[in-house]
UniProtKB/TrEMBL annotation:
UniProt cross-references to Gene3D superfamilies, sorted A to Z: ArgJ beta chain, C-terminal domain, L-amino peptidase D-ALA esterase/amidase
EC number of this enzyme: 2.3.1.35, 2.3.1.1
Gene: argJ
Name the record gives this protein: Arginine biosynthesis bifunctional protein ArgJ
Subunit record text: Heterotetramer of two alpha and two beta chains.
Protein localization: Cytoplasm
Annotated organism of origin: Primorskyibacter sedentarius
Listed pathway(s): Amino-acid biosynthesis; L-arginine biosynthesis; N(2)-acetyl-L-ornithine from L-glutamate: step 1/4; Amino-acid biosynthesis; L-arginine biosynthesis; L-ornithine and N-acetyl-L-glutamate from L-glutamate and N(2)-acetyl-L-ornithine (cyclic): step 1/1
Residues annotated as catalytic: T199
């Protein structure tokens, strides 16, 4: 039975109204993979001609569904396609059983929807190291097929949740010379979140007509500035998957260099990435770490992640303690170039430290006031060059320990 977790205090007020994307139908079911009394399987069916792109975890222990999806990208688009997702069991580190379970699910979906097996993409999320009871999923396929409908994306967002406290969705509308196209996406993610590709499960759909050679580089590039710039706990999942499907149902063609479409897709992906951080296990603070003046963008990113992943920084934020010394520590340990006497640190607009020491104008109550806010900017300037990076994270509270200590029970 899934435990009921209190909704994150950083959650949006409501699940957004997502547009119906032409060319894709959704269905959900209660398969009892691990959870009782809630939906835990999502099926999406895509029309023939749909393009499917994706990015995946770079974990050396990635799951069988991830490996299977990676092999299928870029295949023949003439037929339709499907995405099948289960929550509660990640089908990771399960040896040959994992491969067999993945194939059993994708083969059964293909037969049920009359699709080539090579066009069925599967994802699994949940506990690592336990065999996937795939028969519980395949037993629900006829029910799922009968329930497929265009407007089911909100239900799909709920079915893929594990320790998430709220479903995550985002959308954008783009007006192009050839007409209007829609983008809608859903995500799950709360813990085991660190930048190394997509850091969660994400499914994005558009009715634009766009080929694989244009869509895949766009998805990969935007992932680097959105999902790869978030961290909850510095741990990279074995199951991270982002799949994006372009059905072409609008008839509006999008080329690789279309800035308007790219901007809209970036907006959706960044919104979903931020929602994952806002639902970080036990999170009470949303933290933006901005690093400028680094020797390079890569160095800036290294420093930003060192700050965002530091347990000492994150627990200080949880305790609303403006302990700027922990920022100094994180910068010093990162391994990227830094000069103590050129460093400037701000909490929001409050100048905290400069020229190698605390600022003479700084007062502790100023920093404490910033730390009491639900959204906290940490701004660091290194004074070495033009490199910059932004990373988003959350605080580390006892709630994180409680959720993960009880995760398998």
């Amino acid at each position: 039975m899934a435990k009921t977790l209190a909704v994150s205090p950083l959650a949006p007020a409501n699940f957004p109204e997502l547009p119906v994307i032409g060319g894709v139908d959704f269905a959900v079911a209660e398969a009892g993979v691990r959870y009782a009394g809630r939906t835990d399987v999502m099926l999406a069916r895509l029309v023939p001609g749909s393009t499917v792109a994706g990015v995946f975890t770079r974990s050396a222990t990635r799951s069988a569904p991830v490996l299977d999806c990676q092999e299928k990208l870029g295949g023949d688009q003439a037929s339709g396609a499907a995405i099948i997702v289960n929550s509660g069991n990640s089908n990771a580190f399960t040896g040959r059983n994992g491969v067999d379970a993945t194939r059993a699910v994708t083969t059964a979906v293909a037969a049920t929807l009359d699709l080539p097996e090579t066009r069925v993409f599967s994802s699994s999320t949940g506990v690592i190291g336990e065999p996937l009871p795939h028969d519980r999923i395949t037993a629900k396929l006829d029910e799922l097929k009968g329930a497929l409908a265009p407007g089911g994306i909100a239900a799909a967002a709920r079915a893929i949740m594990t320790t998430d406290t709220f479903p995550k969705g985002s959308a954008a509308t783009v007006t192009l010379p050839g007409g209007t196209v829609q983008i809608a996406g859903i995500a799950k993610g709360s813990g085991m979140i660190a930048p190394d590709m997509a850091t969660m499960l994400v499914y994005i759909f558009t009715d634009a007509k766009i080929g694989f050679d244009a869509l895949q580089p766009m998805v990969s590039e935007i992932s680097d500035s959105t999902f790869n710039c978030i961290t909850v706990d510095s741990d990279t999942s074995t199951s991270d998957t982002l799949l994006m499907a372009a059905t072409g149902a609008s008839g509006v063609a999008v080329e690789a260099g279309n800035d308007a479409f790219r901007a809209a897709l970036h907006k959706v992906m960044l919104d979903l990435a931020h929602q994952v951080v806002r639902d970080g296990e036990g999170a009470t603070k949303f933290v933006e770490v901005n690093v400028t003046g680094a020797a390079s963008d890569a160095d800036a990113r290294t420093h930003a992640l060192a700050i965002a992943n530091s347990p000492l920084v994150k627990t200080a934020i949880a305790g609303e303690d403006p302990n700027w010394g922990r920022i100094v520590m994180a910068i010093g340990k990162s391994g990227a170039a830094a000069d103590r006497d050129l460093l400037t640190i701000r909490f929001g607009d409050v100048l905290v430290a400069e020229n190698g020491w605390v600022s003479p104008e700084y007062r502790e109550e100023q920093g404490a006031a910033v730390m009491k806010q639900p959204e906290i900017p940490i701004n660091v300037t290194l004074g070495l060059g033009q490199g910059s990076a932004t990373v988003w994270t959350c605080d580390l509270t006892h709630g994180y320990i409680s959720i993960n200590a009880d995760y398998r029970s």
